[in-house]
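Recall from the previous lesson that a structure prediction takes nothing but the amino acid sequence as input. Here we apply that procedure to Putative epimerase/dehydratase PtdF from Desulfotignum phosphitoxidans DSM 13687. The sequence below is the only information supplied.
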Amino acid sequence: MKEGKVVMTGGTGFILSQVAEKLIEMGKDVTLFDNNEQHNMYEETQKLLEEKDNFHFVQGDTRDKAAVEDVIKDAETVYHFAALMGTSSRFKQEVETVEVNVIGTLNVLQASLDTGVKYYVHPPRPPLSVWLTPYIISKGAQTQFTQMFHKVYGLPTIGLNIQNCYGARERAILNPNTYRPGEGRKFMASAIIAALKNEPIPVFGDGEQSSDWVHIDDIVEALVLAPCDAAVGQVMDFGVGESITINKIAQIVIEMTKSKSKIEHLPMRTGEAKVHTKADNAPAKEYLGWEPKIDLREGLKRTIPYFAKSLGIESPV
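The prediction returns the following tokens.
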């Protein structure tokens, strides 16, 4: 095991790319492992790869057992976030979803166990067990296998149940090349973009489903803190501890962007049901000393200017 060596599967994504930046500043040797099929690499990530000797990128697929073994070899910490995402967009892709989210995870788990990693950090299944979609079902199996590797084989796992994370650099659509109307989109990014363009904000169902929304800066801090002995074997929630309806969020976005947008209600997507989720941050505080610092309005103040700039318009906040 090489001290300070960190490997991140799905490392070029919204969350881990920003965690990587913090770890590089701390002197860690960070390798991103990603096939980049769902999205392009962020310009910020590409620039750092060109500038930093302790930052590396390996293009690969978690289904490739040999490639996984090679990249994880000697790692001290593994962050496993690689997955086929999309709660409603993986129907008719069940086999591929299971191959990536379950078989790929088994490859990462086994390689991590074999190399003797000190910490294995992962996001368990979202609290959406009533949803019957390929993604949620595969994430359930992934989570149970991870628990098995900890309890049976002694792999030092650390689970972060991240609530709805939003912020600058979030992608409204994961893969624009394959997106079909009616498929899932990242709500916060989509709502902000629509509001800035004075277009309707699409809301599935009656909009009274509620979720906990946590800003990326708080989650980056949590993931930097996560690899520690005190957290091994734990599964912790990370959110602000408040559940807000989708309708309310859309209204706040419209207000803060000074938009003329209206909410457009659409039928619930296949396999989804109305749920209400909220984080219990007590374990995160106990084991990591972590608490959220950014409420929704402050988070939006930090987020809206990014999307305004991407659209080439002046930010309203």
